[in-house]
Amino acid sequence: MYKFKSRAAGDLIMLEPNGRQILTILGRTDAASQTQGILLPEDMPQALQKLEAAVQADEAHKAQLVKEAQAKGETPPRFEGVSLRQRALPFIEMIKRCQKADKEIVWGV
Predict the structure, then answer these.
(1) Is the separation of the CB atoms in 94 and 6 below 8 Å?
(2) Exposed, middle or buried, 105 (CB in 10 Å: 0-12/13-18/19+)?
(3) Residue 14 backbone phi and psi in degrees, to 5
(4) Which of 24, 89, 95, 104 is deepest in the core (most CB within 10 A)?
(5) Are 66 and 77 in contact (CB under 8 A)?
(6) pLDDT digits (tens, 9 = 90+) for 17-40
(7) SS3 annotation, 1-52
(8) Is 53 helix (H, G, I), strand (E, B) or coil?
């Protein structure tokens, strides 16, 4: 379980696989930075770009799979569960609030 905290926003709690996915998108791939870390206000614009690019890539990939299935005359795939956009949106909103207030986001502390 991940708990992202900041003085500018309420705590954001994510299940471990989802929090790890978000941190991986942000480039926090080693175990130490996934266990504990800080996102500084000056790093938030780049973090937002990475998250938004990952969401767009995920949606484009799914759209391509649907298009390919339709071209073959097959039933388009159904994507179960919660999309990356839905999982990332609360964190994106948290980043925007913290960036505006010039406050960091921490986890694992």
Answers:
(1) yes
(2) buried
(3) -130, 150
(4) 95
(5) yes
(6) 999 999 999 999 999 999 999 999
(7) CEEEECCCCCCEEECHHHHHHHHHHCCCCCHHHHHCEEECHHHHHHHHHHHH
(8) helix
Q: What are phi and psi of 3, to 5 degrees?
A: -125, 110
Residue that the structure tokens 């994507």 belong to: 79
Instruction: Give me the tens of pLDDT residue by residue for the chain, a chain 109 residues long.
Output: 999 999 999 999 999 999 999 999 999 999 999 999 999 999 999 999 999 999 999 999 999 999 999 898 888 888 888 899 999 999 999 999 999 999 999 998 7
CA distances from 90 to 32, 64, 95, 106 (A): 23, 26, 9, 15
**Token match 């266990």: residue?**
35
